[in-house]
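Researcher: Please predict.
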Amino acid sequence: MNPTPFRKTANLFGVAGLFLRLGSTAFGGPAAHIALMEQEVVVERGWISRQEFLDLLGVVNLIPGPNSTEMAIHIGYGRRGWPGLLVAGVCFILPAALIVVVIAWAYVRFGTVPAATGLLYGVKPVVIAVVVQALSGLGRSAVKTPALGVLGAGAVIATIVGVNELVVLGAAGASAALARGVRRLRRSVTGPPTPLMATAPFLPLLAPAALTGVGATAASVGLWPLFGVFAKVGSVLFGSGYVLLAFLRADLVQRFHWLTERQLLDAVAVGQVTPGPLFTTATFVGYVLAGTAGAVVATVGIFLPAFVFVAASGPLVPRLRRSPTAGAVLDRVNVASLALMALVTWHLGRAALVDWETAALGLGSALLLLRYRVNSAWLVALGALAGVLIKA
């Protein structure tokens, strides 16, 4: 099967260079990573159109695993086929994994996680501005009709009241089939549509809300059991890093007693304060439990399912867009995905913009991005420098 025919070509070195850099500098979690990728591959390089990017975003939100890593793998597949799939994914994961191994070594040797307060203090506001810029551009492409805008608002409301993110995305896609039924019903009756008919396509988003409501290192850990635990997590996990924390706690702390509560929290903290995928938490845990071999086994275990899922879904993306029904489903999933991304950004913004200095960094970065199109990588580096100087 041929990869997606994106607009501009790139060789494997170009793909590797981009994702090595993003894996080394992309702080802020999946929403920020996806925003940085949109800036690089849509705005800066023109490798992919906004609509194609949105379609990939919709697909990665419907399969298990780390969304931003799967987005990188999808882009690599679209650029250079199967070799690009491997190169993009490995290059995005490898820098973060190496950084985490160094931190894990220090943790095992000294019993604590090195501080990075000033670095994160300056980077977080810039990351918020990058995400806002991406949402602005992607939103204009995704919200093609007022009805899709209403659906996006419904997705936000459903998530706020406690509906699981996967349920929201599935309901958004299912509303496409319901909308087709409503249109057939309209053609069989006379007169203008009733309010119930007008809102019917969005009822799947609200129904789940009514149903859901508001809602010590082990002495010896085998490498195969370690691989099995993380491969299972990578195969079934949807959602945020907090969901990852719940999965790891159930296995590593409660079931096998390989880690203490404090060690697990330290592992998740390392994944959050380092660039690249949050799932490199597995790298830290693997090193603490079984040294370098454990770090390699845990990293391969948690990320391997992402490559498998993308390899299976990647060839289907252009076919989905060519089908009117599947295209309508993608449109709705895309809008719901952006709505969830906007909600995450709101929560991240509240945590990042904590005083006038961070507010100034965020507003200044947004101005430079939206008005002058400054490269986001430079802004992240300058934000890090500013944070270190302010906290010095």
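Model: The CA atoms of residues 271 and 281 lie 5 Å apart.
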